[in-house]
Design a protein that fits this description.
The complex is a heterodimer. Chain A is mostly beta strands. Chain A contains no helices and twelve strands. Chain A has strands spanning 4-7, 10-13, 19-25, 30-31, 36-37, 39-44, 51-55, 59-60, 68-73, 76-81, 90-96, 108-112. Chain B has strands spanning 3-7, 11-12, 18-25, 34-39, 45-52, 57-60, 68-73, 78-83, 92-99, 108-111, 115-119. In chain B, the strands form two sheets. In chain B, strands 2, 4, 5, 6, 9, 10 and 11 form a seven-stranded mixed beta sheet that branches. The A-B interface holds A 1, 38, 40, 42, 44, 49-52, 55, 61, 91, 93, 95, 97-107 and B 35, 37, 44-47, 50, 59-62, 95, 97, 100, 104-109, 111-114.
C-alpha cells in the first residue's frame, strides 16, 4: 500500500497569514503516460462531510477559493492557503488515488493563532 | 443536485453483521465510482472499499478483506456495504462518497453525512 504522511500534524496560523501543509507519498503518484499526479486534498470540518479541494494535485474543485493552491509532483506535495480566513479552520487530508487501496494521510489540524 | 444519504449504522456486538446503505440522487449511480470511507473516533479518514468501472472492479483495504462486501443496486440507486464478522476496530462513522468518474482512480467529489457503526458488547 502507498503510505501518505502529512506534516505537521497540527498548525496554528494567524488570520491573513500563510498556512502550509506537506504531504509525502511512499511511492510516486505521478503517472508518466499522462503526466498527472493522482493526488487529492480534502477539507474536513466538524459535523460535516469532507469536501474535495483539489485533484490532479493542483486542479481546484469548482467553488474553491483561489487562496488554496497545491505544488509538487511525484512524491512530495504542498497545500498552501495564501491568506488564512476563519472559515478555513478544519482538518486537511491528502489522498492518493493512483492505486488501491486509495490511502489518505493522517490529517493536519489547522487552527487560528 | 447530487445527494448521498447513508443509513444502517447501529450498535452491534463483535462478530455480528450489519448492512449499510447509501441512497444516491442527482446522478446515475452506475456511471461513477463509489466508495466507502470511515473515520474512527478521534482518528483520521480511512478508505475502506471502492466499486468502479460498472462494478466490474471492487477493492478493499486489507483489514476488511473477506469480511466486508461492497455492492450496488442501480434500480434502487443504492450503494451497500455488507459488514460481517465485525470487530471493535470497525467502530467508526462510515461515509459514502462518489467519484468524479467511472474509473477507479477518481477523487471523491460528493460525500454523504455518514452513519455511525459502534461495535461493542
Amino acid at each position: 500500500d502507498i503510505v501518505m504522511t502529512q506534516s505537521p500534524d497540527s498548525l496554528a496560523v494567524s488570520l491573513g497569514e500563510r498556512a502550509t501543509i506537506n504531504c509525502k507519498s511512499s511511492r510516486s503518484v505521478l503517472y508518466s503516460p499522462n503526466n498527472k499526479n493522482y493526488l487529492a486534498w480534502y477539507q474536513h470540518k466538524p459535523g460535516q462531510p469532507p469536501k474535495l479541494l483539489t485533484y490532479w494535485a493542483s486542479t481546484r474543485e469548482s467553488g474553491v477559493p483561489d487562496r488554496f493552491s497545491v505544488s509538487g509532483s511525484g512524491t512530495d506535495f504542498t497545500l498552501t492557503i495564501s491568506s488564512l480566513q476563519a472559515e478555513d479552520v478544519a482538518v486537511y487530508y491528502c489522498q492518493q488515488y493512483y492505486t488501491a487501496p486509495y490511502t489518505f494521510g493522517q490529517g493536519t489540524k489547522l487552527e487560528i493563532k | 443536485e447530487v445527494q448521498l444519504l447513508e443509513s444502517g449504522g447501529d450498535l452491534i456486538q463483535p462478530g455480528g453483521s450489519l448492512r449499510l446503505s447509501c441512497v444516491a440522487s442527482g446522478f446515475l449511480l452506475g456511471s461513477y465510482t463509489m466508495t466507502w470511507v470511515r473515520q474512527a473516533p478521534g482518528k483520521g479518514l480511512e478508505w475502506v472499499s471502492g466499486l468502479c468501472n460498472g462494478a466490474d472492479n471492487t477493492y478493499y483495504t486489507e483489514s476488511v478483506k473477506g469480511r466486508f462486501t461492497i455492492s450496488r443496486d442501480r434500480s434502487k440507486s443504492t450503494l451497500y456495504l455488507q459488514m460481517n464478522s465485525v470487530r471493535a476496530e470497525d467502530t467508526a462513522i462510515y461515509y459514502c462518497a462518489k467519484g468524479r468518474a467511472a474509473n477507479c482512480d477518481s477523487p471523491l467529489d460528493y460525500w454523504g453525512q455518514g452513519t455511525l457503526v459502534t461495535v461493542s458488547s
